[in-house]
Amino acid sequence: MKPAIVFDLDGTLIDSVPDLAAAVNLTLTARGLPELDLTTIIGFVGNGLPKLVERVMTHGGVDMGLHSKLTRITLDNYMRAPTARTVLYAGVRDMLEAFTTSGNALGICTNKPEAAARQVLDALDLSRFFAVVVGGDTLAQRKPDPAPLLHVFEQLGAGPRFYVGDSEVDAETAQRAGVPFALFTEGYRKSPVASLPHQLAYADSGTLPALIADALTDPATR
Known about the structure:
43% helix
């Protein structure tokens, strides 16, 4: 049986930080606060949009009582142009085509709100590859809680499993779910590769189908 493969989205399939940064900076400037540079915002990414806004607010000394309001504003800013600056990482489309042609069941497990994730997937012509999409607000839990990832695999059906992501959150999610993990090394990771639990690491998405096929011959990853 072909393995089911679930992907994180931001930092794994797409480089979306430029659009996230634009949304954050619109929120900041509307309050008379200075914009943040891309590197700073990359450092705040992970655990979903509410946590991103929380980290931005902490950095700027903004009253946390405004968190819900500013999260909604930032999401609205983002949803107006979620793919204006977002690009696929090199080799992603060919990789997804290869998995699909081979008969692999594919899904998405992201902390991005589900509506935003689906809008991005549609805009980038990626929706056709994924049978299941779970966002950070689809269930009561979000990564690194393993529930969303396990939910995607349950929807995809029986068979070997592999999770693909780029971050500390993804590595922890896979570990807690008991699922083999492939680490994309060119995303938003903040820690050294060696410090994250993973079964394989890759920098070129085009190599992933062969790497996963090889990894699944190892009894430890079945």
